Amino acid sequence: MTTNKPKFAMYWAASCGGCEIAVLNTHEKILDLDANFEVVFWPVAMDAKYKDVEAMQDGSILLTLFNGGIRNDENEHIAKLLRKKSKIMVAFGSCACEGCIPGLANLSPVEEIVRTAFHTITTDNPNEIYPRTSYDVPEGELRIPKLAPILLPLDQVVDVDYYMPGCPPESHQIAAVIDLVIQVIHGEAQLPAKGTVIGAGNSTVCDECPRARNVKTIKAFRRIQDIAPVDPTLCILEQGVPCNGPATRSGCNARCPQAGAQCIGCYGPAEGVMDYGARLIGAFASVIEANTPAEIEKILDGIPDPTGQVYRFNLAGSLLKAARPAWGKEAS
Amino acid sequence: MTETFEPTIIGFTCNWCSYRAADLAGMARIKYAPNVRLIRMMCSGRLDPTFVLRALSGGADGVMITGCHPGECHYMEQNYKALRRFLLLRRVLHGMGIEPERVKLVWASAAEGARFASETTLFVEEIRRLGPLNWGKQEDGPSTMDHEGPSSIVHGQEVEVPA
Amino acid sequence: MNQKISIDPITRLEGHGKIEIFLDKNGNVANTYFQIPELRGFERFVVGRPIEEMPLLTNRICGVCPEAHNMAASKAADAVYKVDPPRTAKMLRELLYMAFYCTDHTTHFYALGGPDFVMGPDAPVAERNILGVIHKVGLEIGGRVIQMRKYGHAVVEMIGGRKVHPCTSIPGGMTKGITEDQRREIEEMGHWAVEFARFSLKLFSDIVLGNQEYVDLILGDIYTHSTYYMGMVDENNRVNFYDGKVRVVDPGGKEFVKYEPKDYAAHIAEHVEPWTYLKFPYLKNVGWKGFVDGPDSGVYMATPLSRLNASDGMATPRAQEEYERFYATLGGKPVHQRLATHWARLIELLYAAERWVELVTDPEITSPNVHTKPVQVPTEGIGIVEAPRGTLTHHYWTDERGRVTRANLIVGTTNNYAPIQMSTHKAALNLIRDGRVSEGLLNRVEMAFRAYDPCFGCATHSLPGQMPLQITIHDAQGNPVEVLKQFC
């Protein structure tokens, strides 16, 4: 059954499914999507196969929302395939934009990732069996995808038209983007410039946060469980809990700080920020109230995991991309 | 490989003191290691940690940051900001597997040409000892599609499976 | 070289999966392999992260059921600090969890499992999806399904801070409580949810149980396996999703073991195969005997059906009535027919809604006392909850600063990996004969694993969606001779 409606696709690579749920949490807005588009490929929801995508004409899909990071060769293959078949490709959600949580795997060599999974305390593996990309069973050959040495964001493997950040993007933002695209289809609006970050703001989370902010003088960093519940009216960073708001792009309505929890940075770098971690280092350092190395180090000891704190969602998308051990041996 | 490794160092120098110190060293014809490429900032407080990361991911083996002595900052207190950023940055780099010694912060006044020179030379030797960082080598990202055929799941490593 | 039928990718599944069916020279099924082609590495990369981040990081294991991971990680983090959250905090967590359960079970029944029954397994492909269901039962129903999801996620957001990946649960309790206004709103939605659950059960009763063909399908042998059954129970052996002990009954229904979360490693082990990235949990004290049924095989199941089988009843009155009716209709405990899981899931939906109302009407639910500061040195902790798809175990070791040094996670659907493998094989074995593959096969093989609700639900409005399946039949030379497709 084909229609004349523009074609839509949504695909998940190394992701968690939260982006799909966020799209579905637009509730009735999904009906608008369905009314204006023909969904031709969305593995979670309907039955088109990879072969069907391969059979489509290049550029015949108007809009593809691609979420998930590129973790293995199947992810890479489908990313390239969808790029060929799509006019507009959106890196949807934090994983596709910057690697997100699965990008933390880039702190270790991928061999360790596998070894750990197959040597937990409950894993029965005395013969040191690991998965093989090709394995012969009595009946024939079985294959599974090959893991890449590091996880990459989408724009490291294909050209991306737009970025929609968030883990996941908030549903009201997704609804707004669906509305915009429908308007564009009807000739009532223009698409923004290629490379634009859509469905998010241009400022930082601090701008959307209703908490009161004063001049900050951090004399100690605290863990949230040591001071909870935080004062509901005052900036969380000022209370000593490292809040990533200053480096994080706005668009989420600062939901987590409004719920009494620190921002953990899921909306990615604010406008104009080249490296999220660097920006956050600068922000935290600027508000520490100490001038001697000894005092400063003591205050910094209050952050138990500095690397994870500043690169939690953004490691794969950062300037360094991965920790040194993950790059592995000398390139041969 | 028998050639001596020549480190590539980027030096972010503050205009008011260390840049002048470097100038002074030059004028006094004090010899020091030529491996440092200097980039002048108006103040060490201008140092955005991004600069360090750009340098390291772009091929530098080490980064030196120089500023005015505490209490002597031309803009009052900004060198303290540099110090705090530097200390936090080092911790983060350590978590990324980069030796903290690859990034160094030095206070030097405009009159300390000789000291600038000696600190620079010392740093170059330190980096030479640590070896090249080689971050830039895999800038394009490893492609997975090059690996065809039956193999282990992991790039470049065979794992034996018992029959 | 055997002929191979590849079904790749499976869809309407959490993450990715594929099925390889090998035929022998007579065209009958020689073997079937259900492969999981992905691995992200959570157990490695949470190492080094502070324990209070575990509920936040493990949210991202699954964006459909982050609430489950959030709960298990929170309980484990409490255990790491040996801190006991205030009663209100525990109630808020469980309340959030019940609202989540309602959305999740609704999604699966109406968009994934339900269409097979409401429309029938052999209904025209174009109708066998949520749209067909709505067409048959009315647009008003579709609106109700959207409403249930809306309400459930509204509660998650009110208590958890966000609709997806909640952020308010920390070691020792919660970052905030709820106001009386919020409480009233949640209560109103809870009453609505109870009515919706009852309606869904009635729908199932009218459309499925009132149809002998479906009853035969459910009771048929193709989808029946006799294994051990696992589920969490309270002190009265009633189903509890949030807290309690883990109980396992044998294929005859007798209690085999009931263990405390802290003892899980003495009872569960995971088997490895080199053709998949996922491991196969089994009962350690029975042993791994392969992908086989029976009391001598350590294979166990953990699904809504398992939970009902492993318990002595439901803890809320209406759900208990349905529980009794369930077993009376199906001929006693335990029930081995896997398709009955769809019914069991609706009974759990009703329990979750009733429990929602119970919790939100407790006088202490709006208390501001929602956090106890941890004071002990962090060491090691285990947290177990029932995820909608099965028993979920989080185990963390930390250093003295509370940074994770080691982690072990046994995730809901993982428990069912061996049963899914077995069910898929049995369905294929019985349906593919003499090399002939029929349209009916496509759906009926899907139905084999769909009953387990493998961790993903597509929600209320799924697009013309039936399971995307393509089966390619190769001749002895490996040339494709027939391609059967099902998609819209």
How would you describe this protein?
The complex is a heterotrimer of chains A (about 325), B (about 160) and C (about 500). With about 325 residues, chain A is an alpha/beta fold. Chain A has 14 helices and 10 strands. In chain A, strands 2-1-3-5-10 form a 5-stranded parallel beta sheet. A two-stranded antiparallel sheet of chain A has the order 4-9. Chain A starts with 6 loop residues before the first strand and ends in a 5-residue tail after the last helix. The mean pLDDT of chain A is about 90. Helix content of chain B is about 35%, strand content about 15%. Chain B has a 4-stranded parallel beta sheet, sandwiched between helices. In chain B, helix 1 (about 20-25) links the parallel strand 1 and strand 2. In chain B, helix 1 (about 20-25) crosses helix 4. The radius of gyration of chain B is 20 Å and the shape is globular. Chain C is built from 14 helices and 16 strands. In chain C, the strands form 6 sheets. In chain C, strands 8-7-6-11 form a 4-stranded mixed beta sheet, with helices on one face. In chain C, strands 1-2-3 form a 3-stranded antiparallel beta sheet, covered by helices on one side. The radius of gyration of chain C is 22 Å and the shape is globular. Classes of the chains: A alpha/beta (about 325), B alpha/beta (about 160), C alpha+beta (about 500). Chains A and C meet through helix 1, helix 2, helix 3, helix 6 and strand 6 of A and strand 3, helix 1, helix 2, helix 6 and strand 5 of C. Strand 6 (about 125) of chain A pairs parallel with strand 9 of chain C, so a sheet runs across the interface.
User: Which whole number gives the mean pLDDT of chain C?
Assistant: 88
What composes the largest sheet of chain B? 4 strands, parallel
Strand arrangement, major sheet of chain C: 8-7-6-11
- Give the overall silhouette of chain B: globular
Rg of chain C, Å, rounded: 22 Å
Labels describing this entry:
heterotrimer, A: 332 residues, alpha/beta, 5-stranded parallel β-sheet, 14 helices, 10 strands, 31% helix, globular, B: 163 residues, 4-stranded parallel β-sheet, 4 strands, 34% helix, disordered C terminus
